[in-house]
Amino acid sequence: MSDKEPKHCSFCAIPQSPSVPLIAGAEGYICEACVILASQVVNSWSRKKELAAVQESVPIPAEIKQHLDSYVIGQDLAKEILAVAVYNHYKRLKHQTTRTSLGNSEAEVEIGKSNILLIGPSGTGKTLLASTLAKVVGVPFVVADATTLTQAGYVGDDVENILVRLLDVADGNMSKAEWGIVYLDEIDKIARSPEQATGTRDVSGEGVQQALLRLVEGSQVKLPAKSRHNKDGHDTLIDTRNILFIAGGAFPGLEAHVEKRLQPKDSAIGFHAAMKGAEKPSLEAMLNATEPSDLRRFGLIPEFIGRFPILAPLEPLDVAALIQILTEPKNALVKQYQQLFQYENVTLSFTEAALVEIAEKAIARETGARGLRSILEHLLRKTMFDIPSQQAVLECVVELETVQGLAPITLIKKQAEEQRQHAGQS
Ligand SMILES: Nc1ncnc2c1ncn2[C@@H]1O[C@H](COP(=O)(O)OP(=O)(O)OP(=O)(O)O)[C@@H](O)[C@H]1O
Ligand SMILES: [Mg+2]
Ligand SMILES: [Zn+2]
Question: All domains of the chain, ordered by start, with CATH?
Fold first, then answer.
């Protein structure tokens, strides 16, 4: 009989043995398993603290929308959908981190994430909405261009690199990255091309959709081996379950699929066919009526569509909206050119009729607001070339005739001004 009691781990009571060494403390002992468990618990504390810091200043949907409003004109529906999605994302985050480890958690409902698909014509603000949103949200946010992605094994960006970038934006903090938001731009460009809908597999499009599926559906994804986040040759896993995905695309020609679906079958002939020409629904109405089956016909695979349950349509921009875009946002084009002219001490102004004409020209180009810059650049190029060599110019006025190409920009010069002043003095 030994005179000493066998030593036990003070936490789990396992007795000391050659395979279970114990660390001695002032009062008791601890085994390896308990040390590891304790370390995990402590880690989860700091995780919770970090995430709690993120959601201290959670903006409410109205605030998010207000912020978007100062950069993006119109698109109220899309803004509201995005604002609510981001707000709910925060709420899920909060719910997750304030939940106590045991007990009441089972009574709570697990809230799933709702990825969003933005659909709207080219140049109507999809990318702009995403990049503006990135500035408001306190969680890591990356914008990835789907056209640069390739399926594994092909030249280009692997989809996993999106997650590497998310981790970069989160300063390497995995728990923050796992609550990030990813915007997948130009998603319509990875649709399966119709010619290849049957027959051979379309490597460029469908392959990328398949690869993205793994990220979007929420799983443990291994970061690429060459990523600098992989330390000491260990693979780094990132859990994408809580990453919010927003996809956006112009989907040119999608409205044709919607229209076909909405038309009754027998309408191709006779009376109905005549009706069809008479009241062709607007592009906006078509986009609002978009359903998952239309996207499938466009060339997205059903599994992919199914993971974006919220469709947010953007509206085509009309003349009034384009004029607002020209003049109102914080970095509106007209303001930018006025600033450029101001550096030369010249005041630049546009007449109302000129703005309307510019907007109409942009609509004719069918590139949305994107056409505005090139129209302005073309209009002002010569003047911007001339002005630095002409000291006397005080003011430039762009009029309707200028935009129509019928007259040059009206320049108001100092001489005239001085002469007037001289005339007043004498
Ligand atoms: N609603 C809007 N409000 C303000 N500016 C806009 C708006 N829509 C477009 N613009 C302007 O037009 C430019 C192009 O818009 P954006 O890149 O968002 O288009 P997009 O919808 O992503 O088009 P695409 O499908 O071709 O990528 C923006 O940089 C912005 O200056
Ligand atoms: Mg875009
Ligand atoms: Zn123990």
Answer: 1-54 (no CATH), 57-99+109-316 (3.40.50.300), 319-425 (1.10.8.60)
